Amino acid sequence: MTLLTLFSPLMLLVASAIWLFHPGQIIFSQRRGGLHGRPFTIYKFRTMWVSEDGADVQQAVSNDPRITPLGRWLRAWSLDELPQLFNVLRGDMRLVGPRPHALAHEATFKQQCPCYALRDVVKPGITGWAQLHGMRQEITCRADLAQRIQLDLAYVRARSFAWDLSILLKTPLAMIQPMGGAPHPQRRRRAPVMG
């Protein structure tokens, strides 16, 4: 509740900007995989001209024409994730943990990499070890998926209060470098994961 109080002025400002510049719904919701694979509804600020297309979820990519100008800026600085503080309050998520993915994407990722399911032993988080290592953009190839899973599983195996605190303290520094910057050095462009 303290974090919600702290960030409420910023959340109100973002909500007002969305309402002013891109009229329509302010909050975007989507079903994602949570603890032990149980689905939950995640909340984000809307960053696209239209809502996601139901069960046939199309992953947002760089220069995606569906993303609004304001939405592109919100995504670059991860401000669209702020409503997930309500998910933390509800108990669906933690502040720190592996990032949750859309259910349709999870099914594909589990086919591509069976060890993906090992991430589900902890609640998903708003930020995580993988995000501190540059894995904040879309998953576009097998190398992206493997690298993200490797980092997530390293966190799952050795998680602790001290490590969570360290990740939380470093997250603002990671947000200062927007996602439009250089990709993580270990990311490679190979065969697409999706489709």
What report would you give on this structure?
- The chain has 195 residues and is mainly alpha-helical.
- It has one domain (2-176).
- The chain is 42% helix and 10% strand.
- The protein contains 7 helices and 4 strands.
- The protein has helices spanning 2-21, 69-76, 84-90, 103-112, 129-132, 142-158, 161-176, and strands spanning 27-33, 39-45, 94-96, 125-127.
- The protein has a two-stranded antiparallel sheet with strand order 1-2. Strands 3-4 form a two-stranded parallel sheet.
- It starts with a helix and ends in a 19-residue tail after the last helix.
Concise summary:
With 195 residues, this protein is mainly α. It contains seven helices and four strands; from the N terminus they run H-E-E-H-H-E-H-E-H-H-H.
Key descriptive features of the protein:
195 residues, mainly alpha, two-stranded antiparallel ribbon, two-stranded parallel sheet, 4 strands, globular
> Which sequence of strands runs across the widest sheet?
1-2
Strand content: 5-15%
Structural class: mainly alpha
Distance between the termini: 40 Å
H and E string: HEEHHEHEHHH
Work out the helix count: 7
As a percent range, the share of helical residues equals 40-55%
Kindly report the oligomeric state of this protein: single chain
Shape: globular
Number-wise, the strands total 4
The profile of the biggest β sheet is: 2 strands, antiparallel
Number of domains: 1
Unreliable parts: 180-195
Rg, alpha carbons? 16 Å
Average of the residue pLDDT scores: 84
GO molecular function, one term: phosphotransferase activity, for other substituted phosphate groups
GO biological process, one term: polysaccharide biosynthetic process
Family: Belongs to the bacterial sugar transferase family.
Protein name: Putative sugar transferase
